[in-house]
Amino acid sequence: MYFTTPTDGTTLAYEDYGTGTPIVFVAGWSLPSDMWERQVPFFLDHGYRCVLLDRRGHGRSDRPTSGYDTDTRADDLAGLIEHLDLRDVILVSHSGGGAEVVRYLARHGADRVQRVAMLAATVPFLLQTEDNPIGIPGELIEATLTDLKTDRARWFTDLSQSYFATHMGTRVTPATIDTEIRRSLSTSIVSTIEVQRETAHTDCRADLAALTVPVLLLHGVQDQQMPIDLTSRRTVEMTPNAVLKEYLDAGHGLYSSHAAQVNADILDFIKS
């Protein structure tokens, strides 16, 4: 299924399954909505409606030359929620999708949202600045973008083991790793680069402080892509009504490597 964004007429793909309270899944950077394949059947079985968005440049959505800034991507999410007239929404996001969710709430309010769950989210602020000395130096971010432009297949492959923290004995098969690499490579190169850059430069600190809905943060202590000290441990301190659950042996791809625990924790959060 598809809808047209009110901002610039981009056509975005989405999937819509089941009935009941809607859960809107927002994928991580470079990944299509297929990444949620271990969550959707679980929540359908528990009576929830599952709505999944392919952000612009990802999956089956259009690949425009612009609109990859966080504000526009947050507006795209708003466009989907309004297109389906969803109410009492539970937002579930991974990685860069977390910044989109937080910015959506800042720009569009929480009238349609009851709760938010963020996995390994890229908030509050990744870039090193004078008032954010713990952040990542800008030159390192630019070096990553250069690597992606040069050989992104190698870049994703080189990071695949740490992504799932296989050194901790997580039960992730080679087939699963290959699938996630292929999914990442299916994203347009322009979207891959621009969303990565924009996410690194998005400051969500004020947005988080203004949140009024309950927030669940799930994060792997072994996450090398988004270290927990830089992200969720800071986020929980500045966000009202937030709780953090740490997975001691999980990496960035906890939605897959720790799917059963992730699903159970989100379900408990929804029902609490």
From TrEMBL:
Q: Which residues form a coiled coil?
A: none
Ranges for domain AB hydrolase-1: 22-257
- Look up the domain of life of the source: Bacteria
UniProt KW keywords = Hydrolase
Listed InterPro entries: AB_hydrolase_1, AB_hydrolase_fold, AB_hydrolase_sf
Give any Gene Ontology cellular component: membrane
Q: Which GO terms describe its molecular function?
A: hydrolase activity
- The transmembrane segments are none
- PANTHER family assigned: AB HYDROLASE SUPERFAMILY PROTEIN YCLE, MONOACYLGLYCEROL LIPASE
Q: What is this protein called?
A: Alpha/beta fold hydrolase
